[in-house]
């Protein structure tokens, strides 16, 4: 079980998650400081490491829309948060899987900041409200990459298989 | 069963007789484009090779393009150092489609690729930039990826596990009224589809208006398809595509075009008639918050921006210069113009547009992304409002989360520069 640390609306863009002005920063060890940078309070709480690994960011529809910047994923990955959203924009979803950021698709989710969620294999249970919501499976095409632990090891294996 | 253009392209790139939406394929990549974020791609690329006992070499240096545009000239030592690292990588790998910070062959990646004939109909193009959808304007299947996915393509030469997207058919008919054009059309379509209406799908453009449209207009339309969530926009290659590639990009080889089958399957068809379309404005802070200019006319603006990969081409500058010629930018409003490439900048000089802008009081900046992504120059002050021909107006996009950005066509931007308020170009 893990706590919802922020509840966000629809169409949260990667400019919101990781402002463009910090795009020259690329190292995954350095990007987390800029996560949700313009949400000053939330950013400060992230940086103070107030949230244990597995804490949940709840998003609405089209989470991660906009720029393809991978920093938006590596910044969140740095805090080992889980994103549970109604739907996720294509490139962000792909980047998350590629980098191993945990994302969960849950189209009917109702959850507010402070709620405790249990993420099971095919559903999300909001322990605070007692309601259960179905998960949508990740695209089948992506499962292999997740199982391999991300696109880097996945690609490495393919590369080595070609003698 | 019939195939859409993208299904045909993916079938051919994956070596299959046919594919349908939903299938998973591993298409060979014809062109892999990055900009300054190649610095991150290089890190990921080197990590892939770690422990393999092989030297990290890109699969085919002639199919990799790297264009410096996002922060040119470098705004910080960090960017300059990243650019230096990329230059070293480019020479070590023999990458020839490299466009450094230059006044002659430099420019915005999405302008350079068409301009130099790097994209052809039927190509599979990936780019570490969400507006890679742009290159569908030349009949290619072109989509944005993250840096790690690009590193994987650099290693393997194909894209792993691509799900064939479903396609929405957009049929556009009618003749544009004066001062209404491609930008207004795509803003209108995004408003109709919403910001996620085309998520995981392709927009395939048809109709007499598209057939009669220049490649420049098609670029604007495909460029912004991503703002409806689309994986790619695509205009099936036709006579105009061939004309553009021959005459403007100097392509000598055969240019076979891929067209959809008559019985191709579309998940949805949207018909648009442009003959009564008003100039369109995307209002803060979402690109799908689209209104006709009449709904927001009179809104005061402190900064006008004309340029970007969406609307920084010669025909865009011609329209704006025509409106500004012999007139003055309103006091209290500043106007920034950044042509999309060095070549366009030169042509605009030859045609006198640059003089028109400067005499009117606009600041003409070097080619590049400039104010579009708010990293580099042209930032907005607190509570200021910009009116821009770029493609995104998310909160903070122009560098300040306490500012607002409206998006419009070059005609609306130029007309509004004269008055200092959002203005219908048909009234000046
Ligand atoms: S001009 Fe703007 S939208 Fe186009 S590539 Fe540059 S930053 Fe991206």
Describe the structure.
The complex is a heterodimer of chains A (163) and B (428). By secondary structure, chain A is of the alpha/beta class. Chain A contains 6 helices and 7 strands, in the order βααβαβαββββαα. Chain A has helices at 14-17, 40-47, 71-77, 90-99, 140-148, 151-161; strands spanning 2-7, 56-59, 82-85, 102-105, 116-119, 123-126, 131-134. A 7-stranded mixed sheet of chain A has the order 4-3-2-1-5-6-7, covered by helices on one side. In chain A, helix 3 (71-77) crosses helix 4 (90-99). The model of chain A has no long low-confidence stretch (mean pLDDT 95). Chain B has 428 residues and is an alpha/beta fold. In chain B, the strands form 5 sheets. In chain B, strands 4-3-2-5-6 form a 5-stranded parallel sheet, sandwiched between helices. In chain B, helix 2 crosses helix 5 and helix 12 crosses helix 14. Chain B is globular, with a radius of gyration of 21 Å. The model of chain B has no long low-confidence stretch (mean pLDDT 97). The interface between A and B is large, with 46 and 55 residues. The site of iron/sulfur cluster has 14 residues of chain B, from helix 4 and helix 11. Iron/sulfur cluster binds next to helix 4 and helix 11 of chain B.
List the helices and strands and how they pair.
The complex is a heterodimer of chains A (163) and B (428).
Chain A: E1 2-7, H1 14-17, H2 40-47, E2 56-59, H3 71-77, E3 82-85, H4 90-99, E4 102-105, E5 116-119, E6 123-126, E7 131-134, H5 140-148, H6 151-161
Parallel strand pairs in A: 1-2, 2-3, 3-4
Antiparallel strand pairs in A: 1-5, 5-6, 6-7
Chain B: H1 5-13, E1 24-25, E2 31-34, H2 38-49, E3 64-67, H3 77-93, E4 97-99, H4 109-115, E5 124-127, E6 141-144, H5 147-156, E7 162-163, E8 166-173, H6 182-193, E9 201-206, H7 208-211, H8 215-224, E10 232-234, H9 239-248, E11 268-273, E12 280-282, E13 290-292, H10 293-296, E14 303-307, H11 308-311, H12 314-324, E15 334-338, H13 342-350, H14 353-360, E16 363-364, E17 385-388, E18 404-407, H15 410-419
Parallel strand pairs in B: 2-3, 2-5, 3-4, 5-6, 8-9, 8-11, 9-10, 14-15, 14-17, 15-16, 17-18
Antiparallel strand pairs in B: 1-7, 12-13
Helix pairs in contact in B: 2-5, 6-8, 12-14, 12-15
The complex binds iron/sulfur cluster (SF4).
